[in-house]
Amino acid sequence: MKIVLLLMGLVAAVLLLALVITFLVATVRVFGSIYQVARNPSIALIAFRSLLQHRLRSGLLGGAIGLVTAGLLLVTGVSVGINDTLLTSATTLMSGHINVGGFYKVTSGQSAPVVTNYKKVDAIIRREFPEIDYIVHRGRGWAKLVSDTASVQAGVGGIDITQEAGMKRVIVIKEGNIDDLQKLDAILLFEEQAEKLGVKVGDRITIAAQTPRGTNNTIDVTVVAVAKSIGMLSSWNTYVNIEQLRHLYQLNEDTTGALQVYLKDIKQVPAVRERLRKVLSAEGYNLLDPDPRAFFQKFDAVNHESWTGQKLDITTWEEETSFVKWIVQILSFFATAVIFILVVIIAVGIMMVVWISIRERTREIGTLRAVGMQRSSVLAMFVTEGFLLGLMGTLGGTLLGLGLTFGLNSANIGLPKSWQFVFMSERLIVTPTATFVAFGIIFITGIITAISVIPSFLAARLKPISAMSHVG
Amino acid sequence: MISAVVVAVSVLTSAGAWADAPTKEEMVKLLQTIDDRQRNGGDYKALAYIEQKEKEKADIVRELLIFRRDQDDKLMLLFTKPKSEEGKGYLRLDKNLWSYDPTTGKWDRATERERIGGTNSRRSDFDESRLAEEFEPKFLGDEKLGKFETYKLELDVKPGVDVAYPVIQMWVDKDSRNILKRQEFAASGKLARTAYYPKWQKLFSQSKKSDVWFPGEIRIFDEIEKANSTLVLFKSVDLNNLESNMFTKAWLESKSR
């Protein structure tokens, strides 16, 4: 068994070594070709004319490269779109850029997602952090919503709608009025929940939950607004007036669920978070150890700890949405795999076609060599052909991809319900970025150029006399 | 012996029908009677079945064993059926209720007011009665419940006591002193749960030297989700002494394997 493993390891090492050597040789050859073309620009002209001369072959290959580039642009665009939507919906529905939440434990085994005396914490943050744009405070709850015909478990956020400018910008109301959340007995549902509960604006529902002391409590509320779904996160979030949420959980008015802190520049999140930990610790607050999970995933761990009283928990928006990040990661993995397969297919195709092209043009190579063209110039000519083909194909593909992106976004294509859950939006959003456009052009052109080195190298090695006498 | 005398005295003093609205002391005595009649003082073991009916879900029947040592306030529930629930259990140690799941091998601290096994039954449905300790009674009047003459009482939780429902209305049979109906209200005052106790049984306890009463059946109706109900049946109650060291996590885990 050990010998087999040893042999397999040896084979893998040899293959890896061969791959590295091939890559190095190809790189050297490509740079050599660049040098040749720089010295003698007519090589590039010959290569370009050669591509024009074989229009059909060049067109088919360039088209295939273009399609792969457009595909790469679309797939990465969808991935970026999902990420952007996740950021927008997460930082609207359930998280700030940074959150100062926490747990209050009446007994060691029973915790509630509550920050007591939150106004003092709010004042400290405002005083110490000029980086913040604004802060909102939200109540956090998990309860059963019961209508006359059905029930659902959902997160119940307590909000002060007059302070929620960001929420009003992002949430699209399908029915009712979001400002009615100022009323004490009001609730905002998303269309998926309203559908499950069989309710519409004006209907009454009961919210049932246990208080931090374990007492059962209920509130009766009226549906004042039904919002359009914004993907997975909206499927389990509802909102009530924060006063009513405190009433449900029998909390006093100086408590909240979390302070959601929004920064002027989201890139400052890591630095501000670290400073926030230091500042709040220095102010005498007990902090939970960093745990990169959403608050509701921490109850088990917190309930197993023996402390009682208040501990604050400082999290980022990415941590609060870590439970849906796997979707983005799977999609990115899927996109990468698809692109990789397409690039491999195209690379093999390119190699085959260059090979065929060389075979067809063996006599031409012989003639060029006979009139004095050096081997390095022949190599440079074919590598340049590969480069030009790759560059034109990817540029065309980029234009096609951008056009398709524009068309798809303009068409406002609605997604089926099951897809909305994954895409975190009710419609398809494709967001092309300059980074991915540049990456697509450079990466695919580079691959095509590198792959054309091997057949070009073989072409350059042909002897003029045998090449000229080649038949077929 | 002392507890038997207390019960006897309590029953005698509260046995007669109240001519007028009873005093608070009389009502407290009635609650003590109800509590004492169900208390064994020694050990308790019962086989029980919980049938859970929920809207748009298949009915589920769970079989469980209940172990109690009232003297030390100990309680253990061990699910034996169906297969998916087998080995799950609850154990109260001191003031903490722990739940055990053999599939993960993890113990989680649960609230004493938590639903048992996801049903609408609570720990208090299986534990010894503590009405006099936890609630202040108020007389609401005499009421006829079917063919039974009953006292209707309202119980409000005492300050500082944590219970699942802070207000309870109770219908107590004037003749037998058994609870026939119980309505439990959420803190908001909304009716949350109605329980009926159609069968009461008694068993002579050697440790108590008198009868111990227990409900043969409890029918619980969810008043918030109207379509949901729970039936709890108590079978084969045994008041003999249990193993001395069984109220431990290790014991429950060993039975879950």
Question: What does it look like?
Answer:
- The complex is a heterodimer of chains A (472) and B (257).
- Chain A is 57% helix and 19% strand.
- By secondary structure, chain A is α+β, with helices and mostly antiparallel strands.
- Chain B has 5 helices and 13 strands.
- In chain B, helix 1 packs across helix 2.
- The A-B interface holds A 107-110, 144, 146, 150-151, 206, 208, 210-211, 213-220, 250, 300, 303-304 and B 55, 95-96, 108-114, 162-166, 184, 186-188, 190, 192, 224-225.
C-alpha Rg of chain A (nearest Å): 31 Å
**Total count of helical runs of at least 4 residues of chain A:** 17
Kindly provide the radius of gyration of chain B, computed on alpha-carbon positions and rounded to a whole number of angstroms: 18 Å
C-alpha geometry of chain A: elongated
Strand order within the widest beta sheet of chain B: 6-5-4-3-2-1-13-12-11-10-9-8-7
* Low-pLDDT segments, ≥5 res of chain A: none
Number of helical regions of chain B: 5
Subunit organisation of the chains: heterodimer
Please indicate the percent range of residues of chain B in DSSP E strands (runs of 2 or more).
Answer: over 45%
Describe the SSE topology.
The complex is a heterodimer of chains A (about 475) and B (about 260).
Chain A: H1 2-39, H2 42-53, H3 55-93, E1 98-107, E2 110-112, E3 115-116, H4 118-128, E4 132-146, E5 151-159, H5 165-170, E6 173-176, E7 186-190, H6 191-197, E8 204-210, E9 216-227, E10 237-241, H7 242-249, E11 255-256, E12 258-263, H8 269-282, H9 299-304, E13 309-316, H10 317-320, H11 322-360, H12 362-370, H13 375-411, H14 417-423, H15 434-451, H16 453-460, H17 464-468
Parallel strand pairs in A: 5-10, 7-9
Antiparallel strand pairs in A: 1-2, 1-12, 1-13, 3-11, 4-5, 4-8, 4-12, 6-9, 7-10, 8-9
Chain B: H1 2-15, H2 24-38, E1 43-53, E2 60-69, E3 74-81, E4 89-93, E5 96-101, E6 106-110, H3 123-126, H4 131-134, E7 135-145, E8 148-157, E9 167-173, E10 179-185, E11 191-205, E12 210-222, E13 229-238, H5 249-256
Antiparallel strand pairs in B: 1-2, 1-13, 2-3, 3-4, 4-5, 5-6, 7-8, 8-9, 9-10, 10-11, 11-12, 12-13
